[in-house]
Amino acid sequence: MSFSTLGLSKPIVNAVTDLAYTTPTPIQKKAIPIILSGQDLVAAAATGTGKTASFVLPLLEKINRDHISQEHKLRGKRIRALILTPTRELAMQVEASIANYSKNLDLTSMAMYGGIDIAPQKQSLIWGIDIVVATPGRLLDMAHQRALHFDELEFLVLDEADRMLDMGFIDDINKILERLPKERQNLLFSATMSDDVRGLAKRAINADAKEISLTQSSESKSKIEQWLVTVDKDKKSALLSHLIKELAWQQALIFIETKHGAAKLVSQLEKRGINAESIHGGRTQAVREKILADFKAGDIKFLVATGIAARGLDIGALDRVVNYDVPDQVDDYIHRIGRTGRAGASGEAVSFVAKDNFRNLCAIESRLGHVIARKEFEGFPVKKVVPVSILNYVPKNKR
Q1: Cβ(241)–Cβ(271) under 8 Å?
Q2: Cα 393 off chain centre by
Q3: Taken in order 358, 198, 133, 104, is the CA torsion positive or negative?
C-alpha cells in the first residue's frame, strides 16, 4: 500500500516522498481513509508510530480540495482546523510537519503558544489561517481578546489527549469546546486510552465515531529492550556515569522527578566529564528550544528532563531513555519508553529502581504482563529489597 492508494492527491504524496516516506505506518493506513470519509475518530497509538501524519495529511487533503474548488474563502481572524497540543514544543513540531507536508499547496498554518509575545501571533491571524496548532491557554487568551473566532472552524484535533489531561488542561479544553461550532469533524489521538481520556472523548467526539487502538502492538514492544538496575538513591548518579562510560552510550534522554534534581544531576555528570543539559519548567522557552535543538543535532549528548517538561518532545532517532526516577503512573512509564524504538527502529529503556520504587515497579510489570530484566554491574551490588514482583502485586483497588 502507498500513500496515493489511501486517497491523497499528488502534491501531498510528492511532499511525503521527498521526506523519504514510502509506506504508510499501520496507524496511517487505518486513520487516513476514516478521516477522509468525514467520520469522527478516536485513536490510541504509541509515540513514534506516525500518528501526526495520520491526521495532518488527510486534513491537508480536505482543506486543499475546498481551495481548488473555491468552495470556501476564509475570512479574517478565522481558522479552518484547530489542533490542540499539551506543550509548546509539540505545537511547534506539529506545525513544522504541516509545513513540510503542505509545501506544494497554497495553505497557511501557524503554531500558537505561550511564553512569547502575543502580538506577532495576533498579527498572523488578521487575514485568517487554515490550520492553527495551539496550546489551550494561549488559544483561550486569543479568543478572549477577540483575535480569533471559531465560526468557520470545521476540524478539531485533540493530540496527546492523555498528556493534556495529565497536565490539568481539562477546564481549558471544556471552555474551548463550548466555543466551537457543533457541526465539525473531531479527531482524538492519545498514547493511552484511560478512563479520563474516554470521558473526554464522550464530550468532544460524536457517539458514532470510529475507534482505532494500536497501543498493544507486539512489534513495537519487541523492538524496545527494557532492563533495570536496583540501586540506592545516593548511588544513582555514580551508576549513570558508570553506564555511560562503560557501555559507551552516545546519547540518552534521562527522566527525573524534580527540576532541582535535574540541575544537580547535570552538575554531577559534568564534573565527571559528561556533556549534559536539562529541560524543566524553570527554564525559559528560548533556552528550552535551544537545548532541544542542540540535543537533536547531537551537540548535547545527555538530556535530563522532568516528566512535564518532556511531554510532547519529538526526538527522532533516540537510542535510549533512562528512568533515573521511576514514575508513579504506569502510563507515564509506557509513554516514556515509547520515545525510543520509534518507527520500527530498535531502542533501549533503562530504569533505576530504589527501595521506595517497589510498588511502582510492581504496577508497571503487572501492566506489561512480564518481568523486566534485571542487570548487575560491578561496584553496584543488587539490592535484594526489590524482588521479581509481577506474581505478588495486588492493585490498590483490589486490596
Answers
A1: no
A2: 29
A3: positive
d(CA 333, CA 327): 6
Q: How confident is the model at residue 215 (pLDDT cuts 50, 70, 90)?
A: low
The residue assigned the cell 506539529 is 94
* Residue 368 CB contacts under 8 Å (≥ 6 apart), including other chains: 226
Which contiguous run of DSSP H or E holds residue 62? helix 51-69
Please choose, from the candidates 386, 383, 398, 324, the residue with its C-alpha nearest in 3D space to the C-alpha of residue 361.
386
Length of the chain, please?
Answer: 399
Q: What is the rounded CA–CA span in Å between residue 232 and residue 345?
A: 32
Q: Is the pTM of this model over 0.70?
A: no
Longest distance between any two alpha carbons in the chain, whole Å:
70
Single out the residue of 175, 185, 176, 240 nearest to residue 377, CA to CA. 240
- Residue 377 identity: F
C-alpha cell at position 286: 528560548
Average per-residue pLDDT in the chain?
A: 86
Q: For residue 209, what is its C-alpha cell? A: 465515531
